[in-house]
Inverse folding.
């Protein structure tokens, strides 16, 4: 998997996990869901994604997400 696909998969997993935790454990988890969504939104405009930067440093290759 390339960096872009890993970022998309991780973001989707985190949204699903935190929605589940927010509904079944504590509503404060929805703040983390909002953080993930805001990070995706800002990265669409700025091109900066902390997870992508970390994955690139770990040696993952970049490529098309499709």
């Amino acid at each position: 998997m390339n960096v872009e696909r890993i970022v998309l998969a991780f973001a989707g997993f985190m949204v699903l996990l935190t929605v589940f935790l927010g509904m079944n454990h504590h509503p404060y988890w929805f703040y983390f869901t909002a953080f993930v969504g805001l990070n995706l939104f800002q990265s669409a405009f700025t091109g900066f994604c902390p997870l992508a930067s970390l994955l690139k440093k770990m040696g993952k290759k970049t490529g098309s997400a499709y």
User: Anything to note?
Assistant: The first helix runs from residue 3 to 24. The chain has one domain: 3-57.
